[in-house]
Design goal:
- By secondary structure, the protein is of the alpha+beta class.
- The strands form 7 sheets. A 6-stranded mixed β-sheet has the order 15-14-18-19-21-20, with helices on one face. Strands 1-2-7-6 form a 4-stranded mixed β-sheet. A 4-stranded antiparallel β-sheet has the order 5-8-9-10.
- It has 4 domains: 1-159, 2-Layer Sandwich (Methyltransferase, Cobalt-precorrin-4 Transmethylase, Domain 2); 161-239, no CATH class; 243-405, Heat Shock Protein 90, CATH 3.30.565.60; 410-485, Arc Repressor Mutant, subunit A (Orthogonal Bundle), CATH 1.10.10.
- It contains 15 helices and 23 strands.
- The chain has helices at residues 6-17, 35-51, 87-94, 147-159, 173-179, 182-188, 197-206, 222-228, 270-280, 300-313, 357-365, 375-385, 415-431, 438-445, 452-465, and strands spanning 26-29, 56-61, 81-82, 85-86, 95-96, 101-108, 111-119, 127-128, 131-136, 139-142, 166-171, 210-212, 218-221, 243-248, 256-262, 283-288, 291-296, 324-327, 331-337, 392-394, 399-405, 468-470, 483-485.
Length: 488
Amino acid sequence: MLKSNESQVVALIHGLRKLPKETEWLEFKHNDGEPQEIGEYISALSNSAALEGQSTGYVIWGIDNNTHEVVGTTFDPDTTKKGNEDLESWLLRLLQPRIDFEFHKARINDQPVVLLEVGKAFRHPVRFQGVDYIRIDSYKKKLKDFQEKERSLWKVFEQSPFEDAVAAAGRSPSDVLKMLDYTAYFRLLELPIPTDANATLEALVSDELVKRQVDGAWTITNLGALLFAHDLTDFRSIRRKPTRVIVYQGNDRISGLREVEIKSGYANGFEKLVETIDNLLPRSEAIGQALRASVPIYPELAIRELLANALIHQDLTVTGAGPMVEIFENRMEITNPGEPLIDPQRFLDSPPRSRNEALAALMRRMGICEERGSGIDKVVSMTEIYQLPAPEFAKPLESTKATLFCKRLFKDMSKKDQIRACYFNACLKWVSGEFMTNLSIRERFGIKEENKATASRLIKDAVADGSVKAFDPDAPNRNLMKYVPWWA
């Protein structure tokens, strides 16, 4: 949506006046500011904009419908009420789902004009008071009376990802380049930065980060804002998507010590996010050659992979929630909105699936996340190298959570921890063309050879739990038995 910059509003109105006639996504009015009509128009224009491939629908008061001349208006959205309720809050309450719309006031030739911007519908038709509307030519109609239009609209929704929706519309080239960290785009893709604004914008267009509107202004897509915003909270559609990092005292959420919000885009702000977490994590001391060295308690590679996964696999349509990192004394939890598309127990071996294909593809091209879904393999491998408890993946309350645990002596691990570690060792070996054995379990936990019986007991527990199974149950030598994950 436009910021309340009168010159931008005037420029947009002049651009729309140049169109030969009203369209399905554009309505000119003189003084009709009846709240019921406005609500129905918001529904109709939002749905029609989606159907016509437009990012935004518009109503302009103060423009003659036939000549498109500026005639002025007496309609004032700031003073208009429905009963005792302000117009905007009344409209918001009766629109479902809630969409972005905004009134802008300006003066042209000393005449008052009002522009209403309406974001296009996404995923569902927009209804007002339980009824969805559509524009047929320049007329507002009930969508249910035009079944062919309704079928076409649902087809559009099925093919329109969140990344393609509008984060900001009606922007000038300079606005776009101020709001997006375009230099990071070229740096991360290892491309030279163009010497002029037009070439820069065309490069951003090629990856659908921005789009040119029919009136000559520019739109920043959700994809562009999510990846390269200087400040995600500048964009209404994604203002709750910054990553929050919270540090707690102890192992519960009773006492929070510090909270940091990373407002940069996911691409241009990724290194800052990793650095922030690294600075907030407790560290341990390693002594070598009589010198003390501060070392991280979690492998950085594992943190990077889990962060990238949380960003690209989140359900971006979940309102009021974004990625979150919570740091406790004994663990770190990384949570993102939306249940995973595959079983968490199969994260390590399954091909990657993402709700946000464009977002994932660009982050892969920039080297921020893995190309072939091997990120979880690396997470599990690094926890084995550091001899940490195995990571845990879960799907609580319509979200996805990955947990890394601090180093814990083998004797202090619970049976659940031990079985989970055996399972992931079997998974890691399987995807590498190998098998879990007594030896691999001893190496995993640092168990000495003379304590083979301890490793055998762990494997027996994992088999009884159903996490792993014998590859060849009839093998004659029990000490050389091979094991695989339950699904292999």
